[in-house]
Amino acid sequence: MKKSYGIAITVMLFVAHFAQASVFENFNASNAPEGTYGDVSFTSSSNGLTWNLTQCRYIPGLYTNINGKSVALKSDGAGIIQSPVFQGGLKELSFNQRAGWITDGQERLISVEIVDEDLGQTTTYDFSNAGADQTIYEIQINGLNITGSYSYKITNKTEGTIIIIDNIMMVGTEDNLETIENASIADNSYETGSFTGNNGGTWLYSNGRTPLEYIIGGDKSIMLKDTYGYIQSNLLSNGLKELSFLAVQNWIGNSGVQNFQLKVYDANDDLVFEKNDLTYERQSEHRFELFQYTISGIDIVGACSFRIVNASSNIGEIVIDNITWKDKPISTGIKDTEVDNLTVFSREKNIVIRKAGREIGKVSVYNVSGQLVNSIESANREVSIPVESKGIYLIMVSDPLGVSSSKVLVK
């Protein structure tokens, strides 16, 4: 799957918001009309929130969809997908795009506006030459550093012709991500092997191969054979809170149910968590639906690894990609705090202070011995203060309306 990247322009904007965590959107629940463009809202089957579509439509057909049900955006800036507001931060946003039924060689123009709701800041990414044939392109925006609430809209700026959008993937700031991009897996037979993951660890797979039809994200995915093909992470030192992955079938086959299993092992390879009731309803015609599976409540503290298993029976191969997970570190008793519209947290060797609705004022940073290590005054609503060493720090923030105090652990 080909990738496109954009150029960013930053402006300021103030908006209201509501909340949710980072997720995947496949538009399977969208109610865009057939036959004509319209303005509609729908409740997502992936995240339960309301999305707004402006001058969009659903066009049945092999080349007017990407996976399952896609959305066609009208030309000339009229067609827009507006997300709800999410929480949990954002470090990467990606989605699939294709030309639709018109293969006229015309350059496609797409604009993506991402709003940091807490800072009131909008960054615009413009993409050109994003696919004037039937190729399915993946558009990626990497290196984002939104730590709180965010929203975005996708606009078709192409003159006189549609674009098709599907499979929006949002990776939160607390999410780890494995994209399978470093794997060198055979495409003509199933094999057992290993590869270096995005996190630098050694990942294992058994009865895996490169998909012949569907690459979910980037240039590589892994297809797991039925009857217990699997992919397994390296040993994760920070525990495991929850896990998500994307999956799609590869072959046209008879209807039926495919089954996944998630197994988590501790450092001694003892099974400490399992979930065996993840299912996928096979489809008998293109375009196959792409689903995200999220397993919450794992809550394993300490070193562990996880294994995603294809436990389906005959003709049950499944393609896996974009595995994300959240750490479950050992509690220190020191938490990021939010009080009096004040949020304090650490980011590497920096203490980040954010105040909603007004300027921060004066900030004083003390070590555990009570010594003042830094003091600044800021008229901004967010400030990052570097510290020389790890440890616990006491924070005092004062402005004309009062004084707030907090503590933070810099890891």
Structure in words:
This protein is mostly beta strands. It has 3 domains: 23-173, Sandwich (Jelly Rolls); 177-326, Galactose-binding domain-like (Jelly Rolls, Sandwich), CATH 2.60.120.260; 342-410, Immunoglobulin-like (Sandwich). The protein has no helices and 32 strands. The chain has strands at residues 2-4, 7-12, 24-25, 38-43, 50-57, 71-73, 80-82, 92-98, 109-116, 121-128, 137-141, 150-156, 163-171, 175-178, 191-196, 202-209, 222-224, 229-232, 242-249, 256-266, 271-282, 291-295, 304-310, 318-326, 337-339, 342-347, 350-355, 361-367, 372-378, 382-386, 391-399, 402-410. Strands 1, 2, 3, 4, 5, 6, 7, 8, 9, 10, 11, 12 and 13 form a 13-stranded mixed β-sheet that branches. 36% of the residues are buried. Residues 4-21 and 332-339 have low confidence and may be disordered. Keywords: Signal.
